[in-house]
Amino acid sequence: MTTVMMVEMMMMVMAMMSSSMMTVTMASISPADSCPPESSFLSGVLRPAEAVTLREMEPNEPINTKFYQLGNGGSLIFEHDLNAVSDFLGRPHPEFHGVQLDDTPGGELQWVITADLRGKMEPPTSERILFSFRESNWLDGLARGLQEALARLCGQNVPHPELRHHAEHLDFMLYQTQKDLDATRAYANQTHAHIIEQGEAIKLLNNDRKSLRQQRAKKDATIVRLRAKIASLEATVKAQEDQIRELEDDDGGIDLQGGGAFLSDDDDFEEDENTEEEDYEFLEAGPDDYVPIDVEDEE
After folding, report:
1. Is the model's pLDDT at 268 over the cut of 70?
2. Does residue 223 form part of some domain?
3. Residue of higher predicted confidence among 29 and 189
4. Domains in the chain, number
5. Mind giving me the DSSP string for 74-102?
6. Chain segment 173-199, per-residue pLDDT in tens
């Protein structure tokens, strides 16, 4: 067991020595040999901060310098999202430092932009993130830096304090949700059946209402017709009374009606006395103390 551990330690030491030698060798490469002008390695692809060390900066004075800090109301692309993520993580506003140099073999001006994402000051603290890259334009480089900063913040692997507990209880929560869904489905089915019954009852009540309205309309028409007939009969009676008065006046004042008695002969009167009660059964009152009249036959 001890021999295996010693072998592993020797392999680790050799790997570290080889990596350090490779770093020194890469740092000693001249700018012309490391990356030709037409290469897109430094201009079109996002790379970590160590990529800038592939080309040693010549001791040239910076032509222009710029500084940009989020949180001042800017409207660049990805700025609002990066600022929101930084505030959510409790980090200070990210900063971007730019230096314009003319150290390329073709004499083209390029910006070396460094992004500084400072860590959280209060515990639990977070690490500081620094990375640099080259871009031919300040605004394009700034947009590129904002995008990479947002990607680096979102790509950090930070364990969630409650995610494990939540994942362990997902089965129980799913079971409870299934029970709630079953109860809701049963209640919905009962409510649907009740709604169907209420719809049928409403249809029956609507038909009854239409029938009652038709009956009421017929009765109203019958009442109007009877009132007109009564008015006609009253007019006829009044005309006959006037005619009787005229006849009485013409006959010298003889009372043709015989006072309060009705005009009839004795034979008719005797027959009326002998009439049995069965002949007048049709005049007896009904349950509501009124005599039913067949209106349909009175026309």
Report:
1. no
2. no
3. 189
4. 1
5. ---TTHHHHHHHHHHHTPPPPEEEEEEE-
6. 889 999 999 999 999 999 999 999 999
Tell me the whole-structure pTM to 2 decimals: 0.35
- Whether residue 127 lies inside any domain: the answer is yes
Angle (CA) 81 79 121, round 5°: 75
pLDDT in tens, 33-70: 433 333 333 333 344 444 444 344 445 677 889 999 99
DSSP secondary structure, 1-42, as one string: -HHHHHHHHHHHHHHHHHHHHHHHHHHTS-HHHHS-TT--TT
Residue 9 to residue 51: CA distance in whole angstroms? 29
- How far is residue 94's CA from residue 201's CA, in Å, rounded to a whole number? 70
Residue type, 137: N
CA–CA dist 152, 146 (Å, integer): 10
Alpha-carbon distance of 298 to 230, in angstroms, equals: 12
Q: How many residues does the chain have?
A: 299
Q: Which of the residue ranges 121-125, 211-215, 245-249, 290-294 has the most confident prediction, judged by mean pLDDT?
A: 211-215
| 82/105 Cα distance (integer angstroms) | 35
Q: Containing domain of residue 125, as a range?
A: 46-157
144 in a domain, yes or no? Answer: yes
Handedness of CA 209, 211, 215, 218 (dihedral sign): positive
Q: Position 261: which residue type?
A: A
Instruction: Report which secondary-structure segment, H or E, holds 291.
Output: none
Residue 131 in any domain: the answer is yes
